[in-house]
Amino acid sequence: MNLITSEITAFLSDALRCEVGPEDDYFALGLADSLFALELVTFVEERFSLTVEVEDLDLDSFRTADRITGFVQRKSGAAAHPEGP
Fold this sequence. Notes:
This is Acyl carrier protein. This protein has helices at 3-16, 34-48, 65-80. The longest helix is centred in the last third of the chain and has 16 residues, at 65-80. Helix 1 (3-16) packs across helix 3. The protein is an all-alpha fold and 85 residues long.
């Protein structure tokens, strides 16, 4: 498990008050709801210095720690290499 995934699973486990693995879909398991999704987006923005745009708000990108890791890596890469005009 890489550092980003470790930080995300630690946050999720603490916030949800149960052990969450990198591939656990906490929404499907009934551990999270739409209010938690807002908390999760705020965590991602603050911890990884990213801006989650409206078009980024696809629940599938936030269902598991592994998917959030992929999202963070894509956004970080996009921030490092913005598209030209």
